[in-house]
Amino acid sequence: MSEATPVPSAAALAARAVDVALRDGAPIHVRPVRADDLPAVRAFLESLSADSRRLRFFTPAADLAAAARWAAEVDRHERDGLLALTGDGEIAGHAAWARYAPGADRAEVAFEVAETMRGRGLATILLAHLAFGARAQGIATFVAEVLPENHKMLGVFRESRLPLQVHSEPGVLTVEMPTAFTDEARERFRQRERLAAVAAMDAVLRPRSIVVVGASPDTGTIGGATFANLAAGGFNGALHAVNKRGRPIGAHACHRSLDDVPGELDLAVLAIPAADVLHVARQCGERGVRALAVLAAGFAEAGPDGAARQRELLATCRGAGMRLVGPNCLGVLNTDPAVRLDATFVPTHPPPGGIGLLSQSGGVGIALLEQARELGVGIATFASVGNKADLSGNDFIEWSEQDPRTRAILLYLESFGNPRKFARIARRVGAVKPIVAVKAGRTSAGARAASSHTGALLAGSELAVAALFRQAGVLRADTLGELFDLAALLERQPLPAGHRVAIVTNTGGPGILAADACQAAGLELPALPEPLRHELAAIVPRSAGLANPVDLLVDASPQAFAAAVEAIGRSDAVDAVIAVFVARPFARAEDVARALRGAAGALGGRLPLLSVFMTGDSVAGGGGSDPRGAPDATLPVFRYPEDAARALARAAEHASWRRTPHGRVPDFPGARADEASAIVASALAADRDGGWLDPLQTHDLLACHGLPLAPQRVVRSPTAAARAATELGGRVALKAISPGLLHKSDRGGVRLDLSGPTAVKRAAQRMREQLAAAGAPLEGWLVQAMAPSGIELLVGSTTDPVFGPVVACGLGGRAVELLRDVAVRLTPVTDRGARNMVRELGTYPLLEGYRGAPVVDVAALEQVVLRVSALVEAHPEVVELDCNPVVVHADGAVIVDARIRVAPVAPPAPTPALRR
């Protein structure tokens, strides 16, 4: 057995047990096969039809007892296999590989799927997970022998998008494919993931039938309010009620039990106490319900007993193939006239529109819906996910992507289940539909005490959240007010093509405030071109100001407002227009609002038009008491110029993000990844000094990934240090090697700019005495060639417990944690991401030669960032990496000090796992 491919440990096998979604959104459990599965595997094989056995074994009279032993009695190295299990433990599919010869990198692969499970994507899922495990055991190629008429199995292989080679032989086809996924294969699995998420959410947001368990004629109860909302909203599907008393609810019959409800059921809304949920959930599973929305509290948020109850609820749902919203949630809503779904107990009914709204908090969800109603922000769908035991924001975003009514997506989040999946989904969806998020919990009372500079900088996840949103193109709102300001703009107006804005107002002071707010938000107020000024002069009063802002004066008519806005909007001189109206006796706000809506319609989406009504009360408008509440309103209305400026600036940022190429993750062909893996494996096995690598291991690991390092020697005595200084030549640095001595310069463990072997030897002797007196005995010294003069920066990475590897670049040296000038990205970092990171630093001007300083090699610094990202992506066991300082000079960059810590990690799943 090869040392490079050890048999997976029990922990590694446990990590390979996952719940995944089939094509129709139903969950299935995949895990490694075990010897005690032998009876079940044999029963499964015996349950296959004669034709299925012929296609699998090339004969319907196969020795199934021997086949079951072959499948179940695996050694994980020469042969391995997986089972797919339904929630009740029945085998739905089996897949296995076996090497052609001991130690060979080619293996035969075989599959069996139950007849009742075919056509749902199970075989493709098994292939992905099987290939992932085989790759870890050194299998490079799968080979399958398939009967020519077995078109379904050939379809499975082709659907994976792995590059196939098919050879025809007498009576059989031989299919060969690599176990390593191509980009096309990964994208194919992601597409399957999207389809599964949409199918699961369809049962929640587009159900054909609903039952409310716990329905009541008393609208003062949760069940009563929920059923009343469904009935009053005119749900277009079959609506059923269940209550122990069985009393009618208005014109609707009420059943005593689920057994009495006729027909199929897509969604069951459980408006019952937490203590009753498990029992009813099992009944729902027996009835074939596709999804549950559990409104009750008393689960994971309520402590250990509640968490256990939630785990049991999720297991029940998995066992029955049901998906779960909540528990501890508010319900769901879809204003589509073809659905008319209001399965919430909220008394507020927002207008229909183009916003997809998700809240993790029920209380915040109620406030959001009330705000939407007050501001006239139209809601397409709303989901309250509560504890997110199963379905989450990621599923909601994927569903909203394909919903034609949804123009923008608003999220209130308190936590992330799978932030990297969120980033991937949000980046794709945000390219066509803006995503705005409020993320609660910016502070982290539980930030760990970090050991490195990078760890201290990134302790807590707030910087990681900011990096996640930045990379994914998510617009982050700091408050719920900002959330709705953006929602009003994004629902009703196009994104701006740039940052140029014109302000039109009927009084000078608010125009100046608006101009200041725009410039503070990063918007530009260009001077209007002369032809446009001539056109405006013919429209507005003679004494109007035609600069930017355009001051129409106090007696400006509604028609003048509209005409000026239209002229500017058609001129291509700006990318957006903000109209600011202050109440005056010469024009009514209602008339100005009506005229501006007409102007917005006349512009036909050429550019966004925002209005500010500084009237001190609700703004009157055509068709209602507030144009923000008018059902046909196309004009976003703000109360203050600062609100409009912030919203417009954020929309312009998002538009710029869409236009800007996202960059690519570079390849580094010269990287010696296998050698680096051996160093990591050796350090893990040694398990010394808290996982911190010694200086030699650190140097070698960085060198494997092409990181620029200063020439150095590791020595064990002052005499050897002197000899090393002679070998290196020139001036050198001397650094102590001592377990637990993290910040060496603070303890006298660093001497710089030493010249000659005698000076080095004396410095080593003094350092040994000084550190011994301080209780830090030396193991040796690092003798290092002095780096050229330059600017000291930090490049590092730490593994956030939620977000995974996070790369940081910032000002380095001893004051790094004091100044905290740092830019952050989640891995993998793209070339454009590295470029932007460096330019985000407050100290970036220093790199460009601030006040006559030498210009340094910024491109070399970007390469360090990219190679650090590649290193931690290739070796997730590297949980902390600190290169500080990285000296960047005119001719390159060099790392003069580094620390690396490793720890065991579970391997990533080959396909996205459902929440467990």
TrEMBL record:
GO terms for molecular function: acyltransferase activity. It comes from the Bacteria. Residues 28-182 form the N-acetyltransferase domain. It is an enzyme of class 2 (transferase). Keywords: Acyltransferase, Transferase. InterPro entries: Acyl_CoA_acyltransferase, ATP_grasp_subdomain_1, CoA-bd, GNAT_dom, Ligase_CoA_dom, NAD(P)-bd_dom_sf, Succ_CoA_lig_flav_dom, Succinyl-CoA_synth-like. SMART domains: CoA_binding. Pfam families: Acetyltransf_1 (PF00583), ATP-grasp_5 (PF13549), CoA_binding_2 (PF13380), Ligase_CoA_2 (PF19045), Succ_CoA_lig (PF13607). Coiled coil: none annotated. CDD domains: NAT_SF. Its EC number is 2.3.1.-. This is GNAT family N-acetyltransferase. It comes from Conexibacter stalactiti.
